Amino acid sequence: MSDKRDKGDGNAPLELQGVVWMTAGARNLGGHGRMGLLRAIAETGSITRGARALGMSYKAAWDAVDTMNSLAGAPLVERSTGGRGGGSTRLTERGRQLIERFGRIEEVHARFVHQLSEEALDLGSDFDLLRVLNLKTSARNQFVGVVGRLERGAVNDEVELRLSDGTSIVAIVTRESSETLGFEPGATAFALVQASSVMLATDLAGVRLSVRNRLPGTVRRITPGAVNAEVVVDLEAGQRIVAIVTMTSVETLALAPGRHAVALLDASDVILGTLY
């Protein structure tokens, strides 16, 4: 994908554009153009007429069809000879399935690029990749980053996830999960943390804790309930985290909007996943 710039107007909005194409090994099977050719052949019953409809030469159309037939694993276009009309050209069942599936992929891709453009090029707000990907999970806290430090263990691995704002979150995952998910330094990953797993503190001076993740910030909002309260904390580095604590804890810690607080996450409560 590339950014679209109108050189004639410096105030033109930035947009993203993208194309989808299929490959077989290192060779190009086809994209929008070749799939359009297949549709034209299906509609006209002829490579010649299909090529003419798209403004292509017969040779270019035939070369494209020949390439697609050889790369697709099974013929996409077949020709029949004889008969009153002197023969015809039509798509095979595999050819029809391919252009139908590619059409659906293009629709999804277009929606994704549009949503990504609106999210990524809004320079006044944080880039939330999980929202773009529409990842649905019950975890209130979702963070995207890259794997930094990785310490292998006999049973468990310690994985550091570095976020774009410089914050680091450490997680403990099994060695098997780490290998299955392909965790290596530089790999893109995300962290999920249940709000109920987030602990809050207001004064840690002189306190020693075994909790690996300590994220300082400021209380943004408190939504009280009969027993528990939802506390939203704006972290100093720019992220936001949600915690569920008891109303008793809210009173004991004197939590209120604008109050300094530290979010504590046990490394074993951080769930890691990969995006690709």
Structure overview:
There is one protein chain. The chain is an alpha+beta fold. The protein has 2 domains: 21-108, Winged helix-like DNA-binding domain superfamily/Winged helix DNA-binding domain (Arc Repressor Mutant, subunit A, Orthogonal Bundle), CATH 1.10.10.10; 128-276, OB fold (Dihydrolipoamide Acetyltransferase, E2P), CATH 2.40.50.100. The protein has helices spanning 32-44, 47-54, 58-71, 93-120, 129-132, 175-180, 247-252; strands at residues 2-4, 15-17, 21-24, 27-31, 77-80, 88-91, 141-151, 156-163, 168-174, 188-193, 199-201, 213-224, 228-235, 240-246, 260-265, 271-274. The strands form 5 sheets. Strands 9-8-7-10-16 form a 5-stranded antiparallel beta sheet. It has a 5-stranded antiparallel beta sheet with strand order 11-15-12-13-14. β5 (77-80) and β6 (88-91) form a beta hairpin. α1 (32-44) packs across α2 (47-54), α1 (32-44) runs antiparallel to α4 (93-120) and α2 (47-54) crosses α3 (58-71). Residues 1-6 have low confidence and may be disordered.
